[in-house]
Protein backbone atom coordinates (compact mmCIF):
# COMPACT_ATOMS: atom_id res chain seq x y z
CA UNK A 1 0.00 0.00 0.00
CA UNK A 2 1.17 3.51 -0.80
CA UNK A 3 -0.68 6.68 0.24
CA UNK A 4 -0.43 9.94 -1.71
CA UNK A 5 -1.91 13.37 -1.23
CA UNK A 6 -2.96 15.54 -4.20
CA UNK A 7 -3.94 19.17 -3.64
CA UNK A 8 -5.89 18.92 -6.88
CA UNK A 9 -6.97 15.76 -8.67
CA UNK A 10 -9.17 15.15 -11.70
CA UNK A 11 -11.75 12.55 -10.57
CA UNK A 12 -14.48 11.11 -12.84
CA UNK A 13 -16.93 13.80 -11.69
CA UNK A 14 -14.48 16.68 -12.11
CA UNK A 15 -11.70 18.35 -10.13
CA UNK A 16 -11.48 17.69 -6.39
CA UNK A 17 -9.20 19.20 -3.71
CA UNK A 18 -7.06 17.65 -0.99
CA UNK A 19 -7.45 14.13 -2.28
CA UNK A 20 -5.95 11.17 -0.46
CA UNK A 21 -5.11 8.43 -2.95
CA UNK A 22 -4.18 4.93 -1.80
CA UNK A 23 -2.63 2.48 -4.26
CA UNK A 24 -2.63 -1.18 -3.28
CA UNK A 25 0.08 -3.78 -3.90
CA UNK A 26 -1.59 -4.97 -7.12
CA UNK A 27 -1.42 -1.47 -8.66
CA UNK A 28 -5.10 -0.53 -8.23
CA UNK A 29 -6.55 2.52 -6.53
CA UNK A 30 -7.76 1.29 -3.13
CA UNK A 31 -8.99 4.62 -1.84
CA UNK A 32 -9.73 8.03 -3.36
CA UNK A 33 -10.95 10.52 -0.76
CA UNK A 34 -11.42 14.25 -1.42
CA UNK A 35 -11.20 16.82 1.40
CA UNK A 36 -8.89 14.52 3.33
CA UNK A 37 -5.40 14.68 4.82
CA UNK A 38 -2.26 12.60 4.96
CA UNK A 39 -0.06 10.80 2.49
CA UNK A 40 3.07 11.60 0.52
CA UNK A 41 2.44 14.90 -1.30
CA UNK A 42 2.45 14.65 -5.10
CA UNK A 43 4.49 17.27 -6.96
CA UNK A 44 1.41 18.85 -8.50
CA UNK A 45 -2.11 18.30 -9.81
CA UNK A 46 -2.96 14.68 -10.67
CA UNK A 47 -4.87 13.47 -13.71
CA UNK A 48 -5.68 9.95 -14.84
CA UNK A 49 -3.09 8.57 -17.28
CA UNK A 50 -4.16 8.85 -20.91
CA UNK A 51 -4.55 5.79 -23.17
CA UNK A 52 -3.47 6.05 -26.80
CA UNK A 53 -5.96 3.72 -28.44
CA UNK A 54 -4.28 3.46 -31.85
CA UNK A 55 -0.63 3.00 -32.75
CA UNK A 56 1.44 1.71 -35.65
CA UNK A 57 4.72 1.98 -33.78
CA UNK A 58 7.02 1.55 -36.80
CA UNK A 59 5.53 4.63 -38.48
CA UNK A 60 7.12 6.74 -35.74
CA UNK A 61 10.41 6.41 -37.60
CA UNK A 62 8.88 8.09 -40.67
CA UNK A 63 7.78 11.22 -38.83
CA UNK A 64 9.19 14.25 -40.61
CA UNK A 65 10.41 12.25 -43.60
CA UNK A 66 7.42 12.61 -45.91
CA UNK A 67 6.86 16.36 -45.92
CA UNK A 68 8.45 17.20 -49.28
CA UNK A 69 6.22 17.09 -52.33
CA UNK A 70 6.92 14.08 -54.52
CA UNK A 71 3.82 13.59 -56.65
CA UNK A 72 2.16 16.57 -58.28
CA UNK A 73 -0.76 15.81 -56.05
CA UNK A 74 0.54 14.23 -52.84
CA UNK A 75 -2.16 12.64 -50.75
CA UNK A 76 -2.89 9.76 -48.38
CA UNK A 77 -2.28 7.21 -51.12
CA UNK A 78 1.11 8.58 -52.21
CA UNK A 79 2.09 8.71 -48.52
CA UNK A 80 1.06 5.06 -48.26
CA UNK A 81 3.49 4.12 -51.05
CA UNK A 82 6.33 5.76 -49.07
CA UNK A 83 5.20 3.90 -45.96
CA UNK A 84 5.30 0.62 -47.91
CA UNK A 85 8.93 1.23 -49.00
CA UNK A 86 9.76 1.95 -45.40
CA UNK A 87 8.03 -1.11 -43.92
CA UNK A 88 9.84 -3.33 -46.44
CA UNK A 89 13.10 -2.80 -44.48
CA UNK A 90 11.80 -3.35 -40.97
CA UNK A 91 13.47 -6.16 -38.98
CA UNK A 92 12.41 -7.45 -35.55
CA UNK A 93 15.39 -5.66 -33.96
CA UNK A 94 14.54 -2.35 -35.63
CA UNK A 95 10.85 -2.71 -34.76
CA UNK A 96 11.79 -3.25 -31.12
CA UNK A 97 14.13 -0.24 -30.95
CA UNK A 98 11.58 2.05 -32.63
CA UNK A 99 8.67 0.86 -30.47
CA UNK A 100 10.60 1.07 -27.22
CA UNK A 101 11.73 4.61 -27.96
CA UNK A 102 8.18 5.55 -28.92
CA UNK A 103 6.65 4.09 -25.75
CA UNK A 104 9.19 5.88 -23.51
CA UNK A 105 8.46 9.14 -25.31
CA UNK A 106 4.70 8.60 -24.93
CA UNK A 107 5.08 7.93 -21.20
CA UNK A 108 7.02 11.16 -20.76
CA UNK A 109 4.07 13.05 -22.25
CA UNK A 110 1.40 11.39 -20.12
CA UNK A 111 0.26 8.36 -22.10
CA UNK A 112 0.09 5.33 -19.82
CA UNK A 113 -1.40 2.69 -22.14
CA UNK A 114 -1.20 1.97 -25.84
CA UNK A 115 -3.27 -0.02 -28.33
CA UNK A 116 -0.85 -1.47 -30.86
CA UNK A 117 -2.75 -2.09 -34.10
CA UNK A 118 -0.23 -4.48 -35.48
CA UNK A 119 -0.40 -5.70 -39.07
CA UNK A 120 3.23 -6.29 -40.14
CA UNK A 121 3.40 -10.00 -39.42
CA UNK A 122 5.72 -11.61 -41.96
CA UNK A 123 9.41 -11.49 -42.80
CA UNK A 124 10.74 -9.22 -45.54
CA UNK A 125 10.17 -11.87 -48.23
CA UNK A 126 6.62 -12.55 -47.01
CA UNK A 127 7.45 -15.84 -45.26
CA UNK A 128 6.12 -16.32 -41.75
CA UNK A 129 8.47 -15.79 -38.84
CA UNK A 130 9.00 -18.54 -36.33
CA UNK A 131 7.20 -18.05 -34.05
CA UNK A 132 4.65 -16.47 -36.38
CA UNK A 133 3.94 -13.72 -33.87
CA UNK A 134 7.62 -12.68 -33.65
CA UNK A 135 7.03 -9.03 -34.55
CA UNK A 136 3.99 -8.72 -32.29
CA UNK A 137 5.97 -10.24 -29.43
CA UNK A 138 8.70 -7.64 -29.95
CA UNK A 139 6.13 -4.89 -29.46
CA UNK A 140 4.90 -6.55 -26.29
CA UNK A 141 8.48 -6.71 -25.02
CA UNK A 142 9.10 -3.08 -25.98
CA UNK A 143 6.06 -2.00 -23.96
CA UNK A 144 7.06 -4.08 -20.96
CA UNK A 145 10.60 -2.79 -20.85
CA UNK A 146 9.39 0.80 -21.32
CA UNK A 147 6.77 0.34 -18.60
CA UNK A 148 3.66 1.31 -20.59
CA UNK A 149 0.52 -0.84 -20.44
CA UNK A 150 -0.31 -2.39 -23.79
CA UNK A 151 -3.26 -3.90 -25.58
CA UNK A 152 -1.96 -5.80 -28.60
CA UNK A 153 -4.38 -5.78 -31.52
CA UNK A 154 -2.97 -8.15 -34.16
CA UNK A 155 -4.64 -7.27 -37.41
CA UNK A 156 -6.16 -9.38 -40.14
CA UNK A 157 -5.07 -8.15 -43.56
CA UNK A 158 -6.03 -10.55 -46.32
CA UNK A 159 -6.89 -8.49 -49.40
CA UNK A 160 -5.84 -5.29 -51.11
CA UNK A 161 -9.34 -3.97 -51.61
CA UNK A 162 -13.07 -4.63 -51.56
CA UNK A 163 -14.21 -7.77 -53.34
CA UNK A 164 -11.24 -9.95 -52.39
CA UNK A 165 -8.66 -8.14 -54.55
CA UNK A 166 -5.39 -10.08 -54.02
CA UNK A 167 -2.71 -8.41 -51.91
CA UNK A 168 -0.05 -6.41 -53.73
CA UNK A 169 3.55 -7.65 -53.58
CA UNK A 170 4.37 -4.78 -51.24
CA UNK A 171 1.65 -5.95 -48.84
CA UNK A 172 3.04 -9.48 -48.46
CA UNK A 173 4.36 -8.76 -44.96
CA UNK A 174 0.77 -8.14 -43.82
CA UNK A 175 -0.77 -11.36 -45.15
CA UNK A 176 -2.67 -13.65 -42.80
CA UNK A 177 -5.88 -15.64 -42.55
CA UNK A 178 -8.33 -15.60 -39.65
CA UNK A 179 -6.86 -18.88 -38.43
CA UNK A 180 -3.24 -17.67 -38.57
CA UNK A 181 -4.18 -14.35 -37.01
CA UNK A 182 -6.02 -15.99 -34.11
CA UNK A 183 -3.07 -18.30 -33.60
CA UNK A 184 -0.73 -15.29 -33.40
CA UNK A 185 -3.12 -13.59 -30.97
CA UNK A 186 -2.95 -16.75 -28.84
CA UNK A 187 0.86 -16.69 -28.88
CA UNK A 188 0.88 -13.07 -27.74
CA UNK A 189 -1.73 -13.80 -25.12
CA UNK A 190 0.38 -16.62 -23.68
CA UNK A 191 3.39 -14.31 -23.56
CA UNK A 192 1.32 -11.83 -21.53
CA UNK A 193 0.84 -14.51 -18.87
CA UNK A 194 -0.95 -13.14 -15.84
CA UNK A 195 0.41 -9.60 -16.34
CA UNK A 196 -2.61 -7.31 -15.75
CA UNK A 197 -0.96 -4.55 -17.79
CA UNK A 198 -0.82 -6.53 -21.02
CA UNK A 199 -3.93 -7.46 -22.96
CA UNK A 200 -4.82 -8.86 -26.36
CA UNK A 201 -7.71 -8.15 -28.69
CA UNK A 202 -8.00 -8.39 -32.46
CA UNK A 203 -8.38 -6.04 -35.36
CA UNK A 204 -9.46 -6.21 -38.96
CA UNK A 205 -7.27 -3.79 -40.86
CA UNK A 206 -10.25 -2.34 -42.74
CA UNK A 207 -13.24 -3.45 -44.78
CA UNK A 208 -10.89 -3.21 -47.76
CA UNK A 209 -8.64 -5.86 -46.26
CA UNK A 210 -11.11 -8.53 -45.08
CA UNK A 211 -14.20 -10.02 -46.69
CA UNK A 212 -17.41 -10.58 -44.69
CA UNK A 213 -16.76 -14.30 -44.15
CA UNK A 214 -13.22 -13.63 -42.89
CA UNK A 215 -14.51 -10.92 -40.59
CA UNK A 216 -17.15 -13.27 -39.19
CA UNK A 217 -14.53 -15.98 -38.60
CA UNK A 218 -12.24 -13.48 -36.87
CA UNK A 219 -15.05 -12.25 -34.60
CA UNK A 220 -16.12 -15.77 -33.68
CA UNK A 221 -12.53 -16.74 -32.88
CA UNK A 222 -11.89 -13.57 -30.88
CA UNK A 223 -14.26 -14.91 -28.22
CA UNK A 224 -11.48 -17.30 -27.21
CA UNK A 225 -9.52 -14.24 -26.04
CA UNK A 226 -12.35 -13.31 -23.68
CA UNK A 227 -15.99 -12.24 -24.01
CA UNK A 228 -15.00 -8.58 -23.91
CA UNK A 229 -11.78 -8.68 -25.92
CA UNK A 230 -11.42 -5.42 -27.87
CA UNK A 231 -12.11 -5.40 -31.62
CA UNK A 232 -10.67 -2.58 -33.72
CA UNK A 233 -11.01 -1.61 -37.37
CA UNK A 234 -10.00 1.35 -39.56
CA UNK A 235 -13.04 2.76 -41.36
CA UNK A 236 -13.95 5.71 -43.57
CA UNK A 237 -10.64 7.51 -43.19
CA UNK A 238 -10.59 8.64 -46.82
CA UNK A 239 -13.43 9.41 -49.22
CA UNK A 240 -11.95 7.06 -51.83
CA UNK A 241 -12.48 4.21 -49.38
CA UNK A 242 -16.10 5.28 -48.90
CA UNK A 243 -16.68 5.36 -52.67
CA UNK A 244 -15.12 1.92 -53.19
CA UNK A 245 -17.20 0.51 -50.36
CA UNK A 246 -20.40 1.89 -51.90
CA UNK A 247 -19.40 0.47 -55.28
CA UNK A 248 -18.83 -2.93 -53.66
CA UNK A 249 -21.82 -3.18 -51.33
CA UNK A 250 -24.13 -0.22 -51.89
CA UNK A 251 -23.29 0.83 -48.33
CA UNK A 252 -20.78 3.21 -46.80
CA UNK A 253 -18.16 1.63 -44.47
CA UNK A 254 -19.66 2.69 -41.14
CA UNK A 255 -23.15 1.97 -42.43
CA UNK A 256 -22.01 -1.52 -43.49
CA UNK A 257 -20.39 -2.16 -40.10
CA UNK A 258 -23.47 -1.02 -38.20
CA UNK A 259 -25.75 -3.24 -40.26
CA UNK A 260 -23.59 -6.31 -40.70
CA UNK A 261 -20.87 -6.54 -38.05
CA UNK A 262 -22.77 -6.26 -34.77
CA UNK A 263 -20.79 -3.24 -33.58
CA UNK A 264 -21.03 -2.80 -29.81
CA UNK A 265 -19.03 -1.60 -26.79
CA UNK A 266 -16.13 -3.97 -27.55
CA UNK A 267 -15.46 -2.14 -30.80
CA UNK A 268 -13.23 0.77 -31.66
CA UNK A 269 -13.86 2.24 -35.09
CA UNK A 270 -10.67 4.09 -35.96
CA UNK A 271 -11.03 7.45 -37.75
CA UNK A 272 -14.70 7.13 -38.88
CA UNK A 273 -14.02 10.47 -40.53
CA UNK A 274 -16.52 10.36 -43.35
CA UNK A 275 -19.99 9.66 -41.97
CA UNK A 276 -23.50 10.82 -42.82
CA UNK A 277 -25.58 12.18 -39.93
CA UNK A 278 -27.36 8.78 -39.74
CA UNK A 279 -24.04 6.93 -39.49
CA UNK A 280 -22.84 9.40 -36.85
CA UNK A 281 -25.92 8.78 -34.72
CA UNK A 282 -25.75 5.04 -35.36
CA UNK A 283 -22.10 4.79 -34.31
CA UNK A 284 -22.83 6.84 -31.17
CA UNK A 285 -25.77 4.61 -30.27
CA UNK A 286 -23.79 1.40 -30.85
CA UNK A 287 -21.66 2.06 -27.75
CA UNK A 288 -18.45 1.67 -29.76
CA UNK A 289 -15.55 4.07 -29.33
CA UNK A 290 -14.52 6.35 -32.19
CA UNK A 291 -10.73 6.23 -32.39
CA UNK A 292 -9.68 9.76 -33.29
CA UNK A 293 -6.08 10.47 -34.27
CA UNK A 294 -6.01 14.24 -34.74
CA UNK A 295 -2.34 14.82 -35.63
CA UNK A 296 -2.15 11.92 -38.08
CA UNK A 297 -5.53 12.70 -39.62
CA UNK A 298 -4.35 16.28 -40.16
CA UNK A 299 -1.00 15.17 -41.56
CA UNK A 300 -2.63 12.76 -44.02
CA UNK A 301 -5.39 15.18 -45.03
CA UNK A 302 -8.13 12.79 -43.99
CA UNK A 303 -10.98 15.20 -43.22
CA UNK A 304 -12.88 16.37 -40.17
CA UNK A 305 -14.69 14.02 -37.82
CA UNK A 306 -18.24 15.22 -36.96
CA UNK A 307 -17.38 15.47 -33.29
CA UNK A 308 -20.13 17.88 -32.21
CA UNK A 309 -22.93 15.82 -33.77
CA UNK A 310 -21.36 12.61 -32.46
CA UNK A 311 -21.07 13.92 -28.89
CA UNK A 312 -24.59 15.34 -29.05
CA UNK A 313 -25.76 11.80 -29.83
CA UNK A 314 -23.87 10.48 -26.79
CA UNK A 315 -20.92 9.00 -28.71
CA UNK A 316 -17.71 7.88 -26.95
CA UNK A 317 -14.28 8.67 -28.34
CA UNK A 318 -10.64 8.38 -27.43
CA UNK A 319 -7.37 9.54 -28.99
CA UNK A 320 -4.60 7.66 -30.74
CA UNK A 321 -1.11 8.56 -31.89
CA UNK A 322 -1.51 6.39 -35.02
CA UNK A 323 1.51 7.35 -37.20
CA UNK A 324 2.94 9.32 -34.25
CA UNK A 325 3.29 12.73 -35.80
CA UNK A 326 2.67 13.66 -32.18
CA UNK A 327 3.52 11.64 -29.05
CA UNK A 328 1.72 14.08 -26.81
CA UNK A 329 -1.90 13.71 -25.67
CA UNK A 330 -2.04 17.44 -24.90
CA UNK A 331 -1.23 18.31 -28.49
CA UNK A 332 -3.75 15.77 -29.81
CA UNK A 333 -6.56 17.10 -27.60
CA UNK A 334 -5.77 20.71 -28.46
CA UNK A 335 -5.88 19.89 -32.16
CA UNK A 336 -9.13 17.99 -31.71
CA UNK A 337 -10.84 21.10 -30.32
CA UNK A 338 -9.12 23.55 -32.68
CA UNK A 339 -10.16 21.71 -35.83
CA UNK A 340 -13.79 21.93 -34.65
CA UNK A 341 -13.37 25.67 -33.96
CA UNK A 342 -11.96 26.20 -37.46
CA UNK A 343 -14.79 24.23 -39.01
CA UNK A 344 -17.61 25.88 -37.04
CA UNK A 345 -16.34 29.41 -36.46
CA UNK A 346 -17.07 29.19 -32.74
CA UNK A 347 -15.11 28.61 -29.52
CA UNK A 348 -15.26 26.24 -26.53
CA UNK A 349 -17.03 23.43 -28.31
CA UNK A 350 -16.12 20.18 -26.54
CA UNK A 351 -17.79 20.87 -23.20
CA UNK A 352 -20.54 19.41 -21.07
CA UNK A 353 -21.07 16.44 -18.89
CA UNK A 354 -19.06 17.33 -15.84
CA UNK A 355 -17.62 20.68 -16.78
CA UNK A 356 -17.96 23.75 -18.99
CA UNK A 357 -14.17 23.76 -19.29
CA UNK A 358 -12.86 22.33 -22.56
CA UNK A 359 -9.62 21.05 -21.01
CA UNK A 360 -11.38 19.06 -18.31
CA UNK A 361 -13.99 17.69 -20.70
CA UNK A 362 -11.46 16.58 -23.31
CA UNK A 363 -9.20 14.85 -20.79
CA UNK A 364 -12.00 12.98 -19.00
CA UNK A 365 -13.79 11.89 -22.16
CA UNK A 366 -10.67 10.80 -24.05
CA UNK A 367 -9.36 8.91 -21.02
CA UNK A 368 -12.65 7.07 -20.53
CA UNK A 369 -13.07 6.27 -24.22
CA UNK A 370 -9.47 5.12 -24.52
CA UNK A 371 -9.86 2.82 -21.54
CA UNK A 372 -12.96 1.24 -23.04
CA UNK A 373 -11.27 0.76 -26.40
CA UNK A 374 -8.24 -0.94 -24.81
CA UNK A 375 -10.30 -3.12 -22.47
CA UNK A 376 -8.28 -1.77 -19.56
CA UNK A 377 -9.69 -0.66 -16.18
CA UNK A 378 -8.08 2.75 -16.37
CA UNK A 379 -8.66 6.35 -17.42
CA UNK A 380 -10.20 7.33 -14.08
CA UNK A 381 -8.91 8.01 -10.61
CA UNK A 382 -11.40 5.82 -8.84
CA UNK A 383 -11.37 2.82 -6.51
CA UNK A 384 -10.73 -0.40 -8.42
CA UNK A 385 -9.13 1.22 -11.48
CA UNK A 386 -5.45 0.70 -12.37
CA UNK A 387 -3.38 3.41 -10.72
CA UNK A 388 -2.28 5.23 -13.89
CA UNK A 389 -1.39 8.79 -12.91
CA UNK A 390 -0.06 11.92 -14.55
CA UNK A 391 1.31 14.51 -12.13
CA UNK A 392 1.94 18.05 -13.37
CA UNK A 393 4.79 20.39 -12.48
CA UNK A 394 2.93 22.71 -10.07
CA UNK A 395 5.51 25.53 -9.83
CA UNK A 396 5.45 26.23 -13.59
CA UNK A 397 4.10 29.73 -14.22
CA UNK A 398 1.12 28.61 -16.31
CA UNK A 399 -0.07 26.26 -13.57
CA UNK A 400 0.97 27.95 -10.36
CA UNK A 401 -2.10 30.17 -9.99
CA UNK A 402 -4.64 27.66 -11.34
CA UNK A 403 -7.17 25.51 -9.59
CA UNK A 404 -9.58 22.88 -10.91
CA UNK A 405 -10.76 23.44 -14.48
CA UNK A 406 -8.15 26.16 -14.87
CA UNK A 407 -5.43 23.51 -14.55
CA UNK A 408 -6.73 21.37 -17.41
CA UNK A 409 -7.35 24.43 -19.56
CA UNK A 410 -3.80 25.69 -18.94
CA UNK A 411 -2.41 22.22 -19.61
CA UNK A 412 -4.05 21.96 -23.02
CA UNK A 413 -4.32 25.56 -24.20
CA UNK A 414 -1.49 27.59 -22.61
CA UNK A 415 0.92 26.50 -25.31
CA UNK A 416 3.53 25.58 -22.69
CA UNK A 417 5.29 22.26 -23.08
CA UNK A 418 6.88 19.95 -20.55
CA UNK A 419 4.18 20.41 -17.90
CA UNK A 420 4.06 16.66 -17.16
CA UNK A 421 6.42 15.83 -14.31
CA UNK A 422 5.69 12.33 -12.95
CA UNK A 423 3.91 9.41 -14.54
CA UNK A 424 2.81 6.15 -12.93
CA UNK A 425 1.49 3.02 -14.63
CA UNK A 426 -0.37 0.71 -12.26
CA UNK A 427 1.24 2.45 -9.30
CA UNK A 428 4.83 2.17 -10.65
CA UNK A 429 6.55 5.51 -11.23
CA UNK A 430 7.97 5.24 -14.72
CA UNK A 431 8.68 8.94 -15.21
CA UNK A 432 10.21 10.95 -12.37
CA UNK A 433 11.04 14.68 -12.60
CA UNK A 434 10.26 14.49 -16.31
CA UNK A 435 12.76 11.70 -16.94
CA UNK A 436 12.45 8.04 -17.83
CA UNK A 437 15.36 6.03 -16.38
CA UNK A 438 16.23 4.45 -19.75
CA UNK A 439 15.74 7.47 -21.96
CA UNK A 440 19.38 7.96 -23.00
CA UNK A 441 19.90 4.32 -23.94
CA UNK A 442 16.59 4.17 -25.76
CA UNK A 443 17.44 7.34 -27.69
CA UNK A 444 20.83 5.92 -28.75
CA UNK A 445 19.23 2.66 -29.89
CA UNK A 446 16.61 4.59 -31.82
CA UNK A 447 19.22 6.75 -33.54
CA UNK A 448 21.08 3.58 -34.51
CA UNK A 449 17.88 2.01 -35.84
CA UNK A 450 17.08 5.08 -37.95
CA UNK A 451 20.60 5.11 -39.32
CA UNK A 452 20.29 1.48 -40.37
CA UNK A 453 16.82 1.93 -41.88
CA UNK A 454 17.71 4.99 -43.90
CA UNK A 455 21.06 3.62 -45.07
CA UNK A 456 19.47 0.41 -46.33
C1 LIG B 1 -2.14 2.00 -41.91
N1 LIG B 1 -2.36 4.27 -41.47
O1 LIG B 1 -2.68 0.94 -42.02
O2 LIG B 1 -0.98 2.12 -41.50
C2 LIG B 1 -2.90 3.25 -42.29
C3 LIG B 1 -2.74 3.60 -43.72
C4 LIG B 1 -4.10 2.02 -45.14
C5 LIG B 1 -2.87 5.46 -41.21
N2 LIG B 1 -3.98 5.84 -41.75
C6 LIG B 1 -2.76 2.50 -44.72
N3 LIG B 1 -2.22 6.25 -40.44
O3 LIG B 1 -5.11 2.41 -44.55
O4 LIG B 1 -4.16 1.22 -46.07
ZN1 LIG C 1 -4.08 3.31 -38.27
Structure at a glance:
It contains 15 helices and 17 strands.
Question: How would you describe the overall organization of this protein?
Answer:
With 456 residues, the protein is α/β, with parallel strands linked by helices. The chain is 38% helix and 20% strand. The chain folds into 2 domains: 2-48 and 384-439, Urease, subunit C, domain 1 (Roll); 50-374, Metal-dependent hydrolases (TIM Barrel). It has helices at residues 76-87, 92-108, 134-146, 178-192, 212-222, 239-249, 253-260, 277-286, 294-299, 307-312, 329-344, 358-374, 397-400, 405-413, 439-455, and strands at 2-11, 14-23, 29-33, 40-41, 46-48, 50-55, 111-118, 149-156, 198-200, 202-206, 231-235, 267-271, 289-292, 316-319, 389-392, 420-425, 428-431. Helix 4 links the parallel strand 8 (149-156) and strand 9 (198-200). The protein is globular, with a radius of gyration of 21 Å.
Amino acid sequence: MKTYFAREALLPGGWARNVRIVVDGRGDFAEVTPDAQGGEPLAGPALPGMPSLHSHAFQRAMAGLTETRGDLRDDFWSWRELMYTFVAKLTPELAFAIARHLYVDMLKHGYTAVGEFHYVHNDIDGAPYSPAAELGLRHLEAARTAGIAITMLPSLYAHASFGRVPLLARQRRFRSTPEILLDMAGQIRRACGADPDCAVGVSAHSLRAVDPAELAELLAGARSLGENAPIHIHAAEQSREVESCVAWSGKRPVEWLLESAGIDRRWCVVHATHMTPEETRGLAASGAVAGLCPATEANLGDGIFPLLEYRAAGGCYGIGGDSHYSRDPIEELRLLEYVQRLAHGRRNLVVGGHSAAVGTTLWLEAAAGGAQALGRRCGRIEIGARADLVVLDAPRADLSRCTGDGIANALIFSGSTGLVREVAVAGRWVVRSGRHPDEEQVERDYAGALHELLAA
